[in-house]
Amino acid sequence: MNVKIIRVLNTNAVVSVDSQGRELIMTGPGIGFKKRKGENIDQSLVDKTYHLENKEESKRLQEVVKEISEEYLGIADRVVKEAKKEKLEIRDSLYVTLTDHINSAVARYREGIALKNMMKIDIRKFYPKEYQVGMHAIEWIKEQTGEDLGDDEAAFIAMHIVSAELNAQNIIDVNQITELINTVLQIVRIHFKIDLNEESISYERFLTHLKFFAARVFDHMEYEDTMQEIYKVMVEQNKNAFSGVKKIAEYIKKQYNYKLTIDEQLYLLIHIKRILDEQTK
């Protein structure tokens, strides 16, 4: 079956449609060279095929690929696949933001500009899976371009992955989210006078919860309260743990003008109770 070109992006990238009418970006050396809309694609030249579920993101990616080497899209694709292997739920937007970011980072590096990532320690600590994928990306970039962008850049790539997980608008959102996570953990440490065991499962679960909880605070998204009865019982039975929840709720109301719902307080209570039970053991 002949596959037609519906759009030429550059010498090495074209757009086609599959049998279901979905747009595909196809890349390969010379695949778009002197080609026009309506002509058949030489299948022997196809190196990679990309399909984004989100039509808007697909259009944005096509615009990016017009201007940027498809090798950076290839690296972004490896990052997406690696992130999914790590069970990270990321959105199609990562293809767009990361392809563009890698292009800029390599260009900056070649001009002798290496940016320091002030959040690197926190990123490595709070988003270990994302940071690990970022480190792999640095290896792939070096393989492809010969440039070693270093671990500061790995942290920037991790921030893009987190942004795609949380549907955050930009890296600034990830900074704010990370700062809020830091503060909540600090409140728990100081209020209960404990050292958190960062190797424990309960800490890891709490951290995962806080990522998405913090994103909701900045988006001003609220859960619908569905667990009033359980909440009453849990608060009554766990007054010590709930005192920490109250501290967190007061801080967030004062700092971000966001009132925690009953459901959100309950989830925080459950996680804090686990951590305190673990400390007791």
TrEMBL record:
Keywords: Repeat
Lineage, top ranks: Bacteria, Bacillati, Bacillota, Clostridia, Lachnospirales
UniProt name for this protein: PRD domain-containing protein
SMART domains: CAT_RBD
Gene3D superfamilies: CAT RNA-binding domain, PRD domain
Stretches assigned to the PRD domain: 67-171, 172-281
PANTHER family, alphabetized: CRYPTIC BETA-GLUCOSIDE BGL OPERON ANTITERMINATOR
